[in-house]
Every structure is written in C-alpha cells, then in structure tokens.
Automatic annotation (TrEMBL):
It is found in: Cell envelope. It comes from Natronosalvus hydrolyticus. InterPro entries: CcO_II-like_C, Copper_CuA, Cupredoxin, NosZ/Cyto_c_oxidase_sub2. Pfam families: COX2. The lineage of its organism: Archaea, Methanobacteriati, Methanobacteriota, Stenosarchaea group, Halobacteria. Its main location: other. Keywords: Copper, Membrane, Metal-binding, Transmembrane, Transmembrane helix. GO terms for molecular function: copper ion binding; cytochrome-c oxidase activity. This is Cytochrome C oxidase subunit II.
Length: 181
C-alpha cells in the first residue's frame, strides 16, 4: 500500500530553520514557562484557596463536641438554632449530623466540619439559584473551621458531592437562613 502523502523533495532535513519559526518557538517556550510559574504562584496566593483552620480530631472527640453543641442549641421545628456563632456539622453515611440548622443572615458563623466515617463532599447551594454553589471536602480525622456569612435569607441545600457509597445520592440536608434581626 502506498501513502497518499508525498515525501518532500530534496534534503529538507538539512535546511536552516526559518527565523520567524525560531521566534515563534522561542515565544512558545517563554509563554509556557510564564504559565508554569503563574500556576505555582496562583496556587499559593489565589483567592480560591480554602480558608479557615484545620485541626486533627478523632471521631469520638468530634462526637463529644457535637453532643455539647446540640445540647446547648435550641431545637425548633425548622432545625437547630445554635447557641452562639459556632455551627457543628459532620458527614456520616448517608446524612449530615447537626442539620437542619437555622441561622441568621448577615452573621458570621464558624462552621466546624468533619466526618465520622469516610470522605464526604459538602456542597452548599441556595435554593433560589441552584447553579451557585461552594464545594468543600470533609475528611474523617480532621475538623475544619470555616468562617461563613450568609448574605441572603432563604433555604440552602447541603449536598454530598463526593461518592461515598450506595446512599450517596440521598445525602442531603438544609440550612434555613432567616432575616437579619
Ligand atoms: Cu457522602 Cu456522598
């Protein structure tokens, strides 16, 4: 079988590279180095980086904190109303311990996030705009304290975004945010 592509004629391998081609190659190399450096800088300084503090915590320690938090909180029909501005939430296959919770718009809360078993995803979406969301990961053995302020009152859905087993798709709960007092 013959190829439909004809080989170039002459000693094409032995000719000098056109100056313009060299310039474009050079620009390509420089630009790739710029992007490489930018990637490195951006992962350190970009605003996309997770905020807050993370601590190591055992499952039983976090359960104890959760129990103390739930005991101090007020139970209402809509959900728990925390005593202060600390909010505890833990993923467990296939539910969110500590939810539903009732919070106030405009107040900065410290969310203490952890997991009792495996890695879960913590996606928060306002019901009015489901395409808007933040995605965090909760890990067993770690307590992540994330400051959060809800600007708008409404219902926010907590959805697990990390495949964690058979009931993953039903791992859902809510945060009710009320008007600022
Ligand atoms: Cu928890 Cu998926």
């Amino acid at each position: 079988m013959t190829s439909p592509i004809k080989p170039p004629e002459g000693n094409w391998w032995d000719q000098t590279v056109n100056r313009r081609e060299s310039i474009w190659l050079g620009l390509g190399v420089v630009w790739s180095l710029v992007l490489f450096g930018w990637m490195s800088i951006w992962t350190r300084t970009g605003d996309q980086n997770p905020i807050g503090e993370t601590y190591q915590v055992s499952e039983s320690e976090f359960r104890e904190k959760m129990n103390a938090y739930e005991e101090a909180a007020e139970e209402t029909e809509q959900g728990l109303v925390p005593e202060g501005t600390d909010v505890y939430m833990a993923g467990i296959r296939f539910a969110w311990d500590g939810a539903p919770v009732v919070l106030e718009a405009g107040t900065q809360y410290d969310f203490h996030l952890s997991s009792y078993d495996v890695q879960h995803g913590f996606s928060l979406r306002p019901e009015a705009t489901l395409s808007k969301q933040i995605n965090l990961q909760v890990l067993p053995g770690y307590e992540w304290v994330v400051p959060m302020t809800f600007d708008e009152p409404g219902t926010y859905h907590i959805i697990c975004n990390e495949f964690c087993g058979e009931g993953h798709r039903s791992m859902h709960d809510t945060i009710i945010v009320t008007e600022e007092n």
